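Thread title: Can someone regenerate the structure for this chain?

I was given the following input by a collaborator and told the matching structure tokens would be attached. They weren't. Posting the sequence so someone can regenerate them.
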Amino acid sequence: MTLSYTVDATCGAARTGTVTTARGSFATPCFMPVGTRGAVRTLSSADLEDLGAEVVLGNTYHLMLRPGADVVAHLGGLHAFADWHGHVLTDSGGYQVFSLKPRVDDEGATFSSTYDGTSHHLSPEGAVDVQVALGSDIQMVLDVCPPLPSPPAVIRSAVDRTALWAGRARRAFLAYERPDLSQFGIVQGGTDAALRVESAERTVAVGFDGYAVGGLSVGEDRSATLPALEAAVGALPAGAPRYFMGLGDPLGIVDAVARGIDMFDCVLPTRLARHGTLLTSEGRLNLRNRRFADDPGPIDPACACPVCARWSRGYLRHLLTVAEPTAPRLLTLHNVAWTFALVGRIRTAIGQGTLGALRDEIAERWDPANRPGTPDGDAGDGATLDVDDETGATGR
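Best answer:
Regenerated them for you:
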């Protein structure tokens, strides 16, 4: 069967729905933890099942280099390889490739491996081949993702080449005749609303199972992100899922859903956890702060996750400060659970028509404009760390 999407409830442009594939179904809005190399860092597939994850993201760039798509295919594809029974969405690896300043022409991108320096070439067709070998339930086309800001000519070239590659990737995908697998196209265009509309229209004309908005939330100001997102979403079909690539901060999630986004992924919750920053109902909490050394309370009294139910801030801070490997695992469990709970609240608010009130609540605690400086001596927003050890390159 091919992928289908059903809208269950709406609140303005926001919507809840169900994506159905040959593997099963999952609810939207949906947050997808990033399992770049076949695992979400510090967590197992069993952990993800216990947390209620429905879709996990993998990365073509990394898996094609280590252990190699042929190895994963030999071991039964990503699902059998990781013993993961939920859905897998794979990024084409385009973002990672382009962060490495590859040589690019209409045929694809040539780049050096971050592992051993060997040279590799990735074409639109090659990205399809790798993702079919991985057995991705949903695979992404190879796109051109320029940094922001970039000159208008660079953004224009990215839009044109992304459209060219989209057609080639779709033809390569359909040639496999695999109705159990699905493919999403990607919209580019920087923060130029007109280019976003053009890119969306050209991508829709190719005809995909779903559509992603790429090349945003990559360092530009939020005031520029949202108009570009609105322009792109406005040109996408209502009957297909819409995916914002690389979005994971609480306010960003709510704002994107309010504009019609159904799916999102980001390394932010897991990366922040490993650096000792926790997501809570009161905002960010830096567990390294000394005032938590003898705190008997949970990370977040309002959180129902197994970590908050069992261990104190004082104990978890101790594990973190002595570099006990248990610390990043437990803190990651909390941050992922907290993010899932937030998405659950968003679904409920959409159904009740109260998304605006929830947005106001989240903005009070998570809008950077409402918190001068960084709380609790925090090192800053994890999205701005210059090394993403979950992707091996800058994350989306």
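Residues 373-388, 392-396 have pLDDT under 50 and may be disordered.
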